[in-house]
Amino acid sequence: MRDLQADSRFVSGARGTIISVGAWGDPFPERQDAERAVSLEWVLAAMSSGNPVQVMSRFDPGAEILTVIADAQLWAGQVLYSTSITTATRWELFERYSAPPVARMEALRTAKSLGICTNVMVKPFIPAVTGSPAEVEAITNLIRASGANTVVVGDYIYDRRIDTIIRALEDRGGIEPISVSSKVGYPLECAGSSQLDVIRADQDVIAFVAALRSCGIQAFRKSACATAWTQCADPGLRGRPEILGLCVECGLCDPNPVRGGGRR
User: Fold this and answer.
1) Considering the chain, what is the average pLDDT of its residues?
2) Cα torsion at 8, 9, 11, 12 (round to 10°)?
3) What are the CA-CA distances from residue 126 to residues 75, 156, 184, 197, 260 (Å)?
4) Rounded CA gap, 183 and 249, in Å?
């Protein structure tokens, strides 16, 4: 934390810099108690700054760890606990290093019952897999059961292993051939000029988001929008170029947005 706070870009406090734990590796791997203990120390240290903290895991940290995190919150909603899902029915193919989706959603349910704000990342959204009718229904049911506060649906960042699985499924007739609207380069801010290939399937994603929202699930295309909605804060993002095609018209950026409690 000392090095983080020494960075000139770091803003302290509840409305300051969001500290993310678990974005580039799972902090709570299954059956690895030593690693979990170290990760918990990092989470608690981040929370001690008073800044908002995001914790992400594809496993179930368990009630004991989640209770420690909940009790250490310095203000209501300081921690956002997230998990992710790509498929409910083929998760062993695409997410083999993860807990079963039911276990991930159970962790969300436990976290929320302890007073921790929760989020689901439907990411990567793989066309013809995540967006199939069976998956839409299965994932929606899992999310509803978890009671997650928000959902963020993200694009598919090209991965050769995943692509090999997709092509094999297509060849066997297991899924419809994938049709995408575009393939774009997405820059990584932390990696200089390098880029990721992002597979955009806008119509499929829009339909998926609409299906979630029709069930009363607060689904978004950008994490910033989900965080702002949770905080009841107008992020002023709607007119920005990077939001074009991503806005779900939640109303938060309207000139007179509807305010009110209870979003947490």
Assistant:
1) 83
2) -50
3) 37, 6, 15, 13, 35
4) 24
